[in-house]
C-alpha cells in the first residue's frame, strides 16, 4: 500500500513498511526557525535530522533584511547611547501585535531578549555597534541598530518609551538575512546535526495519536523518517500558495508575494491534518513603501475624498494597510517641489497630476470641490506650528507644503506599484512550540515555529521589521528544546 502524500492526511505508522532513518528530533525546513530549533535540540543532547526541500538551507530568512527585534538594553543599544527596558519593549509589542496578540509569547520573548542576543552572538552572529537614525527600510550600510516600527507613533509612545530595537547582523544594507543564515549554517555544520537537502516533507506519520515521523520525497522516492522525541515544523509561510491566500488571506491577493518559492504552507497544512488549529490566518504584512527618502514623510496621503488617513511618518506596513482600506483602494500623496525630485525608490509611484495651486490640483485630479483644498489648508496651518492634531505626525516631518508646483503621486494598488506581502498566520502553539488543537490540548510529538506558527507578529497594521526573524529564531529555539527534552 502506498501511504497518502496529502499533507492534510497524516499517515498511520502501520502503513510504513520501512523506515529510511531514525533520530530523536526531526526538523522540517532549514530557514531561521529550523536552524535555531536544530541547534537548540542538539545542544540538549538530542540527535537531530534537518529536512529541507531546497538544495540548501536559508529559506525566506536568507532573503530577508535580517532585522531582529531585540531590546531591553542590549549591548548594541547601550553602545549606541540608547536605554531601553523589558517593560517598554513588552508594552510596545502588545500594542503592535493588535487584537490577536499572544500575551504569553510576548512576555517570554521580552524576558528572553537579552539572552537571545547573547545566544546569537555565541553562534557567531556579529552586530556592529553603529546606529542609523534616518527613515529607511533597513540600515543602508553596515550599521546594526535602527528604528523599524511605529515606536515613536502617538499611541505607542504614550504607552512605552520609544527605543530603536531592530538589530541587523553586520552586513551591507539588505544583506542581513543572508549573513544571518550563513552564520547559522556554519554553526549547524559544527554540530552533529544531519542535514538532508532536496528532501520535501509531504505528510506527518502518527502512531496512537502521537506524531512520530515524517513522510518525505527524496531522490524521487517516498522515504519515512522516524522521530523518537518530536517533529518540529518550521517550513515557513504560505504566501506563494495562491489557493491558500485566496481562502485564508484574500486581502493579500492583489499584493506582490515576497518570500522563497517553498512558502507554500505545507507545514501548516500538515499541522492542520494532524488536528492542529490554524489561527490569525487572514493577517498579513502588506506594505507600500514611500520612503526613503525621508522627505516623502513630509507629504500627505489622501484618499479619493481628498482626506488624510494616516500619519505619513509611520512604518510602511501601516501605510500599506491604510492605503488598502480607503474606498476604491485609491490612495495618493501630495508633495511639493521641495520634496519631489524623483519617484520614491521602492514604490515607484507615478505622478498623476501637477498643479501650481491646490485648487488646480483638486480640480484636475477630480477631487470633490473644496475637499483637498480644505485638507491642505488645515494641514498647513498646524504644520506651521509643528502640530498635527489629527494624526500626530512627528514634528521632525511637519512642514507646510508651500513650494509649488505641487504633485499628486498615485499609490493606488491598481496602478501595479509594488505592494509586497507575506502571511502572518499559522498553527496555534504554546510558548514552547507545542501545536494546539482547537480545544487547547496539545498534539503529542508535534511542534511548530517561525511562519508555520502564529507567533509574535499578529498584525499587518502594527508590524515592525524584526518581529518575524526575531520570532522565528527565538521560538525556533524553544520548540527545538521542548522537542528534545519534553518527550
Ligand atoms: C524581502 C524580505 C525581507 C524581509 N525582511 C525581514 C526583516 O528584516 N526582519 C524580519 O523580522 N522579517 C523579515 N522578513 C520576513 C521574514 O524573513 C520571514 O517571515 C521569516 O524569515 C520566516 O522564517 P521561517 O524560519 O519561518 O521560514 P523560512 O526562513 O522561509 O524557512 C523555511 C524553510 O522551509 C523549507 N520548506 C518549505 N516547505 C518544506 C517542506 N515541505 N519540506 C522541507 N522543507 C520545506 C523552505 O525551503 C525554507 O528553507 C522579510 C521577508 C522578505 C521576503
Describe this structure in words.
There is one protein chain. This protein has 487 residues and is α/β, with parallel strands linked by helices. It has two domains: 1-286 and 422-487, FAD/NAD(P)-binding domain (3-Layer(bba) Sandwich), CATH 3.50.50.60; 294-415, Succinate dehydrogenase/fumarate reductase flavoprotein, catalytic domain (Flavocytochrome C3, Chain A, domain 1, Alpha-Beta Complex). It has 14 helices and 22 strands. The strands form five sheets. Strands 1, 2, 3, 8, 9, 10, 11, 21 and 22 form a nine-stranded mixed beta sheet that branches. The chain has a four-stranded mixed beta sheet with strand order 4-7-6-5. The chain has a four-stranded antiparallel beta sheet with strand order 15-16-18-17, covered by helices on one side. Helix 1 packs parallel to helix 8. The radius of gyration is 24 Å and the shape is elongated. The two termini are 30 Å apart. The site of flavin-adenine dinucleotide (FAD) has 41 residues, from helix 1, helix 2, strand 9 and helix 14.
Amino acid at each position: 500500500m502506498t501511504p497518502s502524500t496529502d499533507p492534510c492526511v497524516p499517515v498511520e505508522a502501520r502503513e510504513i513498511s520501512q523506515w529510511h532513518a531514525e533520530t530523536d528530533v526531526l526538523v522540517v525546513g532549514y530557514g531561521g526557525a529550523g536552524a535555531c530549533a536544530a541547534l537548540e535540540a542538539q545542544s540538549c543532547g538530542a540527535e537531530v535530522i534537518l529536512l529541507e526541500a531546497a538544495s540548501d538551507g536559508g529559506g525566506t530568512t536568507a532573503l530577508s533584511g535580517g532585522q531582529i527585534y531585540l531590546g531591553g538594553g542590549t549591548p548594541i543599544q547601550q553602545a549606541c547611547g540608547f536605554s531601553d527596558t523589558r517593560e517598554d519593549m513588552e508594552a510596545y509589542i502588545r500594542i503592535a501585535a493588535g487584537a490577536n496578540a499572544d500575551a504569553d509569547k510576548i512576555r517570554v520573548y521580552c524576558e528572553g531578549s537579552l539572552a537571545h542576543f547573547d545566544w546569537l552572538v555565541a553562534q557567531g552572529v556579529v552586530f556592529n555597534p553603529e546606529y542609523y537614525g534616518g527613515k529607511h527600510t533597513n540600515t543602508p550600510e553596515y550599521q546594526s541598530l535602527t528604528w523599524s516600527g511605529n515606536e515613536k507613533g502617538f499611541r505607542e509612545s504614550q504607552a512605552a518609551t520609544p527605543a530603536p530595537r531592530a538589530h541587523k547582523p553586520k552586513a551591507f544594507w539588505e544583506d542581513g538575512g543572508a549573513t544571518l543564515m550563513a552564520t547559522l549554517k556554519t554553526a549547524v555544520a559544527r554540530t552533529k546535526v544531519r542535514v538532508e537537502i532536496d528532501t520535501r516533507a509531504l505528510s506527518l506519520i502518527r502512531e496512537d495519536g502521537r506524531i512520530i515521523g515524517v513522510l518525505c520525497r527524496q531522490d524521487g522516492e517516498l522515504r519515512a523518517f522516524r522521530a523518537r522525541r518530536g517533529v518540529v515544523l518550521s517550513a515557513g509561510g504560505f504566501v506563494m500558495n495562491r489557493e491558500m491566500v485566496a481562502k485564508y488571506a484574500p486581502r493579500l491577493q492583489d499584493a506582490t508575494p515576497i518570500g522563497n518559492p517553498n512558502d507554500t504552507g505545507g507545514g501548516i497544512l500538515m499541522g492542520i491534518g494532524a488536528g492542529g488549529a490554524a489561527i490569525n490566518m487572514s493577517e498579513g504584512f502588506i506594505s507600500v513603501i514611500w520612503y526613503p527618502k525621508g522627505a516623502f514623510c513630509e507629504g500627505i496621503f489622501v484618499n479619493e475624498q481628498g482626506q488624510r488617513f494616516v500619519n505619513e511618518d509611520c512604518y510602511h506596513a501601516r501605510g500599506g494597510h491604510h492605503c488598502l482600506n480607503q474606498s476604491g483602494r485609491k490612495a495618493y500623496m501630495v508633495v511639493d517641489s521641495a520634496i519631489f525630485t524623483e519617484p520614491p525608490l521602492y514604490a515607484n509611484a507615478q505622478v498623476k497630476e501637477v498643479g501650481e495651486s491646490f485648487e488646480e490640483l483638486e480640480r484636475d485630479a477630480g477631487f470633490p470641490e473644496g475637499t483637498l483644498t480644505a485638507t491642505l489648508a488645515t494641514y498647513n496651518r498646524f504644520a506651521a506650528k509643528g502640530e498635527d492634531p489629527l494624526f500626530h505626525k512627528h514634528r521632525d516631518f511637519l512642514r507646510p507644503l508651500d513650494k509649488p508646483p505641487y504633485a499628486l503621486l498615485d499609490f493606488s494598488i491598481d496602478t501595479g506599484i509594488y505592494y509586497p506581502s507575506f502571511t502572518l498566520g499559522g498553527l496555534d502553539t504554546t510558548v514552547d512550540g507545542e501545536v494546539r488543537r482547537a480545544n487547547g490540548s496539545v498534539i503529542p510529538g508535534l511542534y511548530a515555529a517561525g511562519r508555520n506558527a502564529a507567533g509574535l507578529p499578529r498584525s499587518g497594521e502594527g508590524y515592525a521589521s524584526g518581529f518575524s526573524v526575531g520570532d522565528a529564531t527565538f521560538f525556533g529555539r524553544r520548540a527545538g528544546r521542548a522537542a528534545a527534552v519534553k518527550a
